């Protein structure tokens, strides 16, 4: 603690890092899914069908839920950084902290729903999605990448919620006297 009597801010720093990771991973997942290239599938009867992520509702949910989670997480980062280190102050406004908890719950719920929908859609539509591998297009690869980014974002969001309440005994930035 560098010989000072400041409260350790390690959990705030780790939480901020995890929030930034959540935001980046959720946005990446949404963009990768939204840009999933078209794929042409040739059916046994000779007919061909072109598919995109929009043809599978769970993939549309994944893209939108991850995009909304990104926006909410950005608001959460703003609230975490904007409230400063005066969270324990009795006179500090409680509304931002309440809103931050609501955002944390909403982000985690959206990411878990999106990830679960994507994983179950890959199982349900497996043969159709697998038909797009190789020379037919990158659709299958993008679907798998997007669902893994979404899973990573969900894990980061859950970890951020956990570390927010766990005191970590180190400081990453000094507390200035002007903060409170």
Roughly what is the average pLDDT, rounded to an integer? 81
Terminal CA distance reads 20 Å
Can you tell me the overall shape?
A: elongated
Number of helices: 5
Helix content: 55-70%
The ordered string of helix (H) and strand (E) elements is: HEEHHHH
* Weakly predicted, low-confidence segments: 176-180
Order of strands in the sheet with most strands? 1-2
Radius of gyration (Å):
21 Å
Total strand segments = 2
Largest sheet: 2 strands, antiparallel
Structural class: mainly alpha
DSSP strand content = under 5%
Keywords: Cell membrane, Membrane, Transmembrane, Transmembrane helix
GO cellular component, one term: plasma membrane
InterPro entries: CASP/CASPL, CASP_dom, CASPL
Subcellular location: Cell membrane
Q: Which descriptors would you attach to this protein?
A:
CASPL; transmembrane helix; elongated; disordered C terminus; CASP/CASPL; 2 strands; 180 residues; two-stranded antiparallel sheet; mainly alpha
């Amino acid at each position: 603690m560098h010989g000072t009597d400041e409260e350790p801010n390690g959990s705030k720093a780790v939480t901020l890092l995890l929030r930034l990771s959540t935001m980046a991973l959720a946005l990446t997942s949404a963009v990768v899914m939204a840009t999933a290239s078209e794929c042409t599938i040739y059916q046994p009867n000779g007919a061909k069908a072109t598919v995109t992520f929009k043809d599978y509702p769970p993939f549309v949910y994944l893209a939108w839920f991850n995009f909304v989670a990104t926006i909410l997480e950005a608001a959460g980062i703003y609230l975490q950084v904007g409230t400063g280190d005066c969270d324990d102050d009795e006179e500090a406004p409680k509304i931002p902290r309440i809103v931050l908890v609501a955002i944390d719950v909403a982000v985690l719920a959206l990411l878990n729903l999106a990830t679960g929908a994507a994983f179950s859609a890959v199982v349900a539509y497996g043969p159709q999605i697998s038909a797009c591998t190789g020379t037919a297009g990158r659709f299958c690869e993008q679907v798998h990448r997007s669902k893994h980014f979404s899973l990573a974002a969900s894990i980061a969001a859950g970890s951020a919620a956990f570390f927010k309440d766990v005191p970590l005994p180190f400081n990453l930035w000094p507390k200035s006297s002007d903060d409170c």
